Structures are given as C-alpha cells and as structure tokens.
Amino acid sequence: PPSPIQVMLRSGAAVVEGIVRDAAGRPVSGATTVLVPPPARRQNRTLYRAGKSDASGRFRITGVAPGDYELFAWQSIPEGAYYNSRFLGRYQDRGRPARVTQNSTSTVEIPVIP
Residue 65: which of 18, 12, 106 has the closest Cα? Predict the structure, then answer.
C-alpha cells in the first residue's frame, strides 16, 4: 500500500482594512475594493480578495493569504472585471502596493477610481 499522506492546514490569513476617499478627500460608500496578486500569480483567482466600502467609506477584506498585492478601489465596476488583465491594465498606475504578512492587519487609505 502507498505511504500515508499527512495534510497540515494553517490559516495565517490576514486582514486588510481602511477607507476609500474621493479626490476631495470625502469617504466613498459602496466602492468595490480589490486586492490583486502580482502579475505572475494572477491566473490563481483564489488569491484575489474583494469587498465593499460601507456608508463611512470603510472596508474590511478578510482571509488574505500572505504576499504582495495591489489594492484598488472602484466607484463602479462590472462584477469580476478585475480578473481581466486588459481591464486591469487600464488602471495599473492607480493601484496601491500592499504587503500582507501572516496573521496581520493592515490599514490603508485608498483613492477611488471613478
């Protein structure tokens, strides 16, 4: 018989939270916030994490795997459009780098993309 397989699971998941603001510095409610993995890992959709900002512009994204990401916030975006490399390429310069470490909570402020 084959040797037994040992499976170990660890969470290590992190949290990214913050506030979305418009060009005038006002909080933006209902913005879609997305953590996008680096280009070499974008084919793995499980690494993307998204959330919505609340009435005070605050967002919270949980269950984030440790690694380097770019954080984006859109006022309005078609569902799942951020998976499309051509769509994302139009906004590449608008993302904010985010380094996520194991079991951490990062707080960021991000401008909304209209």
Answer: 12
The pLDDT score that the predictor gives to residue 9 is: 62
Asked if 2 and 40 count as a contact pair (C-beta separation under 8 A), the reply is no
Instruction: Tell me the pTM.
Output: 0.85
Rounded to whole angstroms, what are the CA distances from 108 to 63, 84, 85, 87, 94?
17, 24, 24, 23, 14
Give CA 30 to chain center in angstroms.
15
Cα separation, 64 vs 51, whole angstroms: 12
Residues for the chain: how many in total? Answer: 114
Residues 74-101 have pLDDT tens digits of 999 999 999 999 999 999 999 999 999 8
CA–CA distance, 84 with 86 (Å, rounded to integer):
6
Tokens of 91: 């906004």
Residue 16 CB-density burial (10 A; 0-12 exposed, 13-18 middle, 19+ buried)? buried
